[in-house]
Amino acid sequence: MAYVDGFVLPVPKKKIAAYKKLATLASKIWKEHGALDYYEAVGEDLKSQMGVPFPKIAKAKKGETVVFAWIVYKSRKHRDAVNKKVMADPRLQCMDPKDMPFDCKRMTYGGFNVIVKG
């Protein structure tokens, strides 16, 4: 059916513009290398009354919000091929995790098989 890489990460609210710039470049790179779709969404209504709120899952600190992102592929095999190309792209080689507008160590991600598409 499809395969999705999903991401949840805390981002300082004052760095959302810098994050958006980075995400826009990432979107371009992933799609150039074959990703079917690419989404980055910044938290707006995160005061969940049910379950565990995203800020708690992301261990967001005061002054941070949560970004929820996903990239769509045909399959895991397709994802692996796209990501191999992406990781070799020179536009990403110069990026230092210490210079990111978020703490890379607090990002969580994983690959998911799509079981329902509405």
How does this model look, in words?
By secondary structure, this protein is of the alpha+beta class. It has helices at 16-32, 54-57, 76-88, 90-93; strands at residues 3-12, 37-42, 64-73, 108-113. The protein starts with a strand and ends in a 5-residue tail after the last strand.
Structural Rg: 15 Å
How helix-rich are the residues, as a percent range? Answer: 25-40%
Q: Unreliable stretches, pLDDT < 50, 5 or more residues? A: none
CATH architecture classification: 2-Layer Sandwich
Instruction: Determine the strand fraction and express it as a percent band.
Output: 25-35%
Q: Strand order of the main beta sheet, please?
A: 2-3-1-4
SSE class: alpha+beta
Average pLDDT across residues? 93
**CATH structural fold name:** Alpha-Beta Plaits
CATH structural class: Alpha Beta
In N-to-C order, the SSE pattern is: EHEHEHHE
DSSP summary: helix tally: 4
Largest sheet: 4 strands, antiparallel
Question: What kind of assembly state do the chains in view correspond to?
Answer: single chain
Tally of separate domains = 1
Q: What would the principal axes of the Cα set say about the shape?
A: globular
The count of DSSP E runs of length 2 or more, i.e. the number of strands, is: 4
End-to-end CA span: 12 Å
Topology:
Elements: E1 3-12, H1 16-32, E2 37-42, H2 54-57, E3 64-73, H3 76-88, H4 90-93, E4 108-113
Antiparallel strand pairs: 1-3, 1-4, 2-3
Brief rundown of the structure:
This protein is of the alpha+beta class.
